[in-house]
Amino acid sequence: MSEKYTTLESPPNDDPRILTSDVYLAAYLLTQDCRLAEVLRNERHRVSFVVEGEGADRLRRNYKSGPVYVNVRFFREKLLSLRRLMDGKQRSASCPTPPSLPLSQAALVPSMVEGSPMQLSRA
Known about the structure:
The protein is of the alpha+beta class. The chain has a domain at 17-92. It has helices spanning 23-31, 56-65, 72-87, and strands at residues 17-20, 35-41, 47-52, 106-109, 119-122. The strands form two sheets. It has a three-stranded antiparallel β-sheet, covered by helices on one side.
């Protein structure tokens, strides 16, 4: 196999370490009490995750063979943390911050929609 991909020898069935480039599998494993041991990058900036934990290989087989069930909020949290590691920064950091108005230049005015909260606008 070419050196452009990070590879490991196929581990024995009971090996608690798994190498994967599947970010969703890695997030699933992290929701199942496995831990992220390492993040590997190659010269082409491809990312692989080394995840370890008791029963990791069994969990991977379950993931590959059919439906698995997770707490969606916990899965989302793990997925976002893996993506941050992949990007090397906060994902929301790339969004521009809207300018804020000093309170001396802002005034509260009623919203145009009945029952909505007040809005800030320039005085």
